[in-house]
Design brief:
With 204 residues, the chain is of the alpha/beta class. Helices cover 37% and strands 20% of the residues. A four-stranded parallel β-sheet has the order 2-6-1-8, with helices on one face. A two-stranded parallel ribbon has the order 3-7. It has a two-stranded antiparallel ribbon with strand order 4-5. α2 packs parallel to α3 and α3 packs parallel to α7.
């Protein structure tokens, strides 16, 4: 079942395949062998060119656990210096208030250098003030994070140490010329969530 999910993605190496599987399995393990707020790696999907399937691959995890492949705006768009720390703080607090468990930041460019992201990736408890109020909220940090970008995106050493990288490499020029056995994989995953979750549970 797992092989059929991943078999049409162009992983660069076997390690990248295994890291993609780890990204799918890790949310299931939280609360079973650990606390729900145990910190897990940031899964970073990097492709050698556009339209290789990095966000489509990341979306499988979102569909499996949240029934939807939600994408957030990039941490770094290649223009803003400091990667807009304040905006990310607001987004994280809003996600925690609404009960989100996962944030995927798609299509990052330039250099990822965001102190808020680096901080929350290792913090088991997160505290922040509501915008426009003096009220301070405290949460167990149960958020999982993932990002995507194409080759050329860079990052700090501290950030790299918090990541597991999933590299995709396609060696053809026209990415739209590919044909797939399962052209609507997201629909298949959504329709077969009980089967996939049962498979993961059996593995655990």
């Amino acid at each position: 079942i797992i092989y059929n999910i991943f078999k049409e993605f162009c992983f660069k190496t076997q390690k990248d395949y295994l890291n993609a599987f780890a990204a799918l399995l890790t949310p299931f393990l939280k609360g079973l062998f650990s606390k729900f707020n145990i910190r897990t790696p940031i899964f970073f999907y990097i492709a050698n060119q556009p339209r290789v399937g990095k966000d489509y691959l990341a979306g499988i995890t979102g569909i499996l656990y949240e029934n939807q492949a939600l994408e957030e705006s990039p941490i770094s768009n290649g223009v803003d210096k400091g990667n807009n720390n304040e905006e990310l703080r607001k987004k994280i607090l809003s996600a925690m208030i609404s009960g989100r468990k996962r944030l995927h930041f798609s299509n990052n460019r330039g250099k990822i250098d965001n102190s808020v992201l680096e901080s929350i990736s290792t913090a088991e408890i997160w505290s922040d003030r509501i915008l426009g109020k003096s009220e301070n909220l405290v949460f167990d940090n149960e958020l999982d994070f993932s990002l995507s970008g194409n080759i050329g995106v860079t990052y700090t050493t501290d950030f790299a140490n918090r990541c597991k990288f999933i590299n995709l490499f396609l060696d053809i020029e026209d990415t739209n010329s590919r044909k797939f056995e399962n052209p609507n994989l997201h629909h298949w995953v959504r329709e077969n969530r009980p089967l996939i979750l049962s498979d993961l549970f059996s593995l655990i």
